[in-house]
Amino acid sequence: MASSLAMASPSMVLKEKSRPRTVSVTTDEFAPDQIVVKFKATADDSEIEQKIVNDGDGKVYESPYEKVKVLKIPLGTSLKQAMQRYRGDNRVEYVKRDYVMKATMVPTDPYYSLQWNFFNSTYGGINMPAAWDKSSGQGVVTAVVDTGVAYENYGTKYAQAPDLAGVNFIPGWDFINNDSHPNDDDGHGTHVTGTIAQSTNNGIGTAGIAYNASIMPVKVLDQNGNGSYVQVADGIRYAADHGAKIINMSLGGTVPDTYLEDAVRYAYNKGVTIIAASGNDGAAAVDYPAAYNAYVIAVGATRYDEQKAYYSNSGSALDITAPGGDDTVDQNGDGYIDGILQQTFAPPKYKVFNYYFYTGTSMATPHVSGVAALILARNSTFTPAQVRNFIQSTAEDHGPPGWDADYGWGIVDANAAVPNLSISLNSDGQVNLGTIALGATTSTPPGSE
Length: 449
Hints:
20% of the residues lie in helices and 24% in strands. By secondary structure, the chain is of the alpha/beta class. The protein has 2 domains: 13-24 and 106-417, Rossmann fold (3-Layer(aba) Sandwich), CATH 3.40.50.200; 30-103, Alpha-Beta Plaits (2-Layer Sandwich), CATH 3.30.70.80. Strands 7, 8, 9, 10, 12, 14, 15 and 16 form an 8-stranded parallel beta sheet that branches. Strands 4-5-3-6 form a 4-stranded antiparallel beta sheet. A hairpin with a 5-residue loop joins strand 19 (421-425) and strand 20. Helix 4 (188-197) packs parallel to helix 7, helix 5 (229-241) packs parallel to helix 6 and helix 7 crosses helix 8. The radius of gyration is 25 Å and the shape is elongated. The N and C termini lie far apart (57 Å).
């Protein structure tokens, strides 16, 4: 575990930011071509049937308990027109939109019940089940700039982590060994990757947030979790030049550096959303590169009870918080420390995998990267500024109202941050399908018609 940054001269060193330890229903949409009509109890059944036929509507469902019918409106008729037809009939008690309910997804992964960070009945975690109904991060290329990833069977030394077998990997680079095989020899990058995109619904192990995202491993830290600022900066540029839409950096250093800042600026200007750890020193200042606030989303850590973790750095550059855990407590009473659970290995046994609880801002950061992937999968044209806005403006506020130095804008809420596929009505009553921009509203409030 690296809770503090060691600086070496003349080459500055970045360290991983982790603290390793072993050990409903949504109603976001309605059917655009269906309405619900409740007829009065006194209405004649034959007259009701005749009206439906005359209006050209089709019956989708009728209740055996009340005179309630779900009707499919004919092509060329707007939702508003259809509703007005029935509103003007004195045999009708009410007419409304046909809202659609969806069962929230619960992964089949057996250790999902230990992932309090994704969801728990007391505090809610980051509210993943409802978010999974909207997005799985399909195809969003996310670079894990770290110690590498156990992503491939390579030679006699390295093996793919079994619970990453379903992940789509994009070719990356190893800036420590200068080759095209960025395999993990520390365990940190593999754990981070699991939170972002662990194989999910595969009946083994744990779940990942954006399990259909594509992962680009970029190794910039060595087997001790250390790397120079130059290597990290070059890893950032590599990811930006090779198609990454998100860069996750669960690492940091305490001093600024021009070459590093130039790299994050370069990636940001290429449309990459950059997310980095605030640091584990309990300090009143955020580490670099997270502190480059114009380009990077800085992530602090919280505990099971949604209080700031004791080690999490604060400061004016902090943007958001996410679960990072606390290895000193078991607040949820599950018999384990309140860490973030994912599959990795304990070096030097690079091919022996188990599930480990890690804690730290390193573990908080991939929660936000995963949510960013869910957002971009909904609309790949979103800019880094828009992704930041979705995440920050929908966060669950903690501490003083609004932004504060301990929580930033609050704890990331995956379901709130991922935009809905929304339906709105124009003034002419025509139905529009599409993603509503943050802050926009439908022209008619849900349920008002």
